[in-house]
Amino acid sequence: MPGDYEQLVDEISAALGAPATLEDRDFRLIAFGAHEGDDDSMMDPVRTRSILQRRSTAAVRAWFEGFGIARAKSALRIPPDPAAGVFKGRICLPVRHRGIVHGYVWLLDDGHLSNLELGGRGTPPDPRIEQAMETAARIGALLAAEARAGAELGDLLRELLLSGASERQAAADALRDALRPGADEAPLALVAVAPWDTSDTDAAPLPGLPGLLAASAMPGAAGTAGSAGSDERPGGPPGAGARQGAAGHTLAALVRLRTAGGLAPAHSAAEHLLRSPRAGSGAAAGIGAPREGLSELPGAWREALAAARSARAEPRLGPVAQWDAIGAYRLLTGLPATQSDETIRPLLSPAHTELARTAEAFLDCAGQASRTAQALGIHRQTLYYRLGRVEKLTGLDLDEGADRLLLHMALKSARL
Questions:
Q1: HSE of 302, CA atoms in CB hemisphere, 13 A
Q2: For residue 27, is it left (φ>0), alpha (ψ between -120 and 50) or beta?
Q3: Dmax over Cα atoms in the chain, in whole Å?
Q4: Pairing of strands 279-287, 212-219
Q5: Would you say 206 and 320 are in contact if contact means Cβ atoms under 8 Å apart?
Q6: Nearest one of 178, 244, 182 to 216, comparing CA atoms
Q7: Structural domains of the chain, ranges and CATH numbers in brackets
Q8: pLDDT per residue as tens, the chain (416 positions)
Q9: What are the angstrom distances between the C-alpha of 115 and each of 10, 18, 48, 180?
Q10: Which residues are CB-neighbours of 408 under 8 A, at least 6 positions away?
Q11: Full 3-state SS string of the chain
Q12: Are residues 288 and 255 in contact, defined by beta-carbon separation less than 8 angstroms?
C-alpha cells in the first residue's frame, strides 16, 4: 500500500513539475514524491519537517485549515505565511472519496505554478490540474478502502476489549481471522490515549505507524481527573479533578511488538498518537504489559487504561506511562471511586492547595525534610511550619506510619 501511494504522488509531481507530499487529514505524512534537481530552495522548512518528522506543527495546520481545505472539492492555492513557518506558497489538492476528505496532496510553488489555472468561477482548470485531481481521487479510493478495513478491525478490537469471559474467545477468534496472517504470533501490547476526540465521525484510520494492527475509540475517558471538557487542569494539586465525571473517549491501539520485553513500538505509537489533533488537551497515554495471545487483551486494556489515568493524574509519570512503572497507582486505579476520607477532606479544599502539595512532596520524599525542602524550593523552617498546619488541619501525626500511609494514599487517590 505505501508503494501505491508513492507511485501516485510521483504521477502528480511529474504532471505538474513540482515536489509533492501526501498527508492524511490529521497532517501526518503518508508519502512524498521524488525531489530531483539541485534547487534546494524547494525544500522549505514545512516540507522538510513533514518528511523528517512525519507531521506538521499546529501553526501550520491552523494556517492551512483557515483556507477551507477540509471543505474544498477542487484544487486551491495557499499563500505563504512566514509567521507560521510557511515560507513558500502551495497548491492543495483535496483527496476525497464519495464526498469525504481523506487527506491532502501538497505541491510546492516557487512561482512557476502561479499562472496555472485551478478552475472555478466559470473558468475551466488547466488540463494538468484535472489530471492531478483524477490521480488524487484514486488516492482517495485507496485511503477509503484502508479506512473501511481499519474500521472493521477497530470494531472487532472494541468487541474483544468489552467482552465478558464467556464471549472472549469467540471475539478473539473473530479478530484473529480479520488480521493479516500471523499478525498475532508476535507479542502484543495495548496503548490507551485519553482523551480522544471522536467528533469527526468520518475519521480515517491511522496509517504509517509501525506495528499498529488495529485502533478503536472506546467509550469514556481514562479516569475522571482533568477529563475532556473539564475546567480543571490535569496534573494539578490533589483533589483538582476529584469531582469531575468521565467525559470524552479513549483510543485503544493494538501494537505488535518485536520481542516480548521490547515495548519500543508501543512507545513510538503512543508518542505519534499524542501528537494527533484528536488527542485532547492534557492527553496522556498508557501501555499495558505485553501479552502473547489475543484472548489476554482485555487484561492488558485495563492496565493500559490505569497507566493512562495515572499519567494524567501524575505528570511525572507521563505523558506515556507503562503499567509496570506507575507504582502505587497500580493498586489505586483498581479501587472503586469513593469520597475522600473525612480526615483528609479539609486539606483538599482550594484554600489549602499549597499545604496539600507540601504534604504530598514530603511523603513522596519518604519524610526526608532536606529532600522535600529542596524539591519545593523552600526553607526547612517553612516546611516544618506547613507540616504543622497539615497536622492541625487533619488531626494526623506525621511521625506515625499509619497516619502517613493514610494521608499519602488519600492524596494520591484525590488525583484520580
A1: 11
A2: left
A3: 83
A4: unpaired
A5: no
A6: 178
A7: 2-146 (3.30.450.40), 186-332 (no CATH), 345-415 (1.10.10.2840)
A8: 556 899 999 999 999 988 899 998 888 888 887 655 445 444 565 555 555 445 567 778 888 889 999 999 999 999 888 877 778 888 999 999 999 999 999 998 877 788 889 987 778 999 999 999 999 999 999 998 888 888 899 999 999 999 999 999 999 999 999 987 777 788 999 999 999 988 765 444 454 577 899 999 998 766 543 333 333 333 444 544 433 333 479 999 999 998 888 999 999 999 989 988 888 888 999 999 999 989 999 999 999 999 999 999 998 998 999 999 999 999 999 888 777 788 899 999 999 999 999 999 999 999 999 999 999 999 999 999 999 999 999 999 999 999 999 999 999 998 88
A9: 22, 14, 25, 47
A10: 360, 363
A11: CHHHHHHHHHHHHHHHCCCEEEEECCCEEEEECCCCCCCHHHCCHHHHHHHHHCECCHHHHHHHHCCCCCCCCCCEEECCEHHHCECCEEEEEEEEECCEEEEEEEEEECCCCCCCCCCECCECCCHHHHHHHHHHHHHHHHHHHHHHHHHHHHHHHHHHHCCCCCCHHHHHHHHHHHCCCCCCCCCEEEEEEEEECCCCCCCCCCCCCCCEEEEEEEECCCCCCCCCCCCCCCCCCCCCCCCCCCCCEEEEEEEECCCCCCCHHHHHHHHHHHCCCCEEEEEEEEECCCECCHHHHHHHHHHHHHHHHHHHHCHHHCCEEEHHHCCCHHHHCCCCCCCCCCCCHHHHCHHHHHHHHHHHHHHHCCCCHHHHHHHHCCCHHHHHHHHHHHHHHHCCCCCCHHHHHHHHHHHHHHHC
A12: no
Cell 492531478 sits on residue: 132
**Residue 21, all three cell numbers:** 507530499
Entry field: residues in the chain: 416
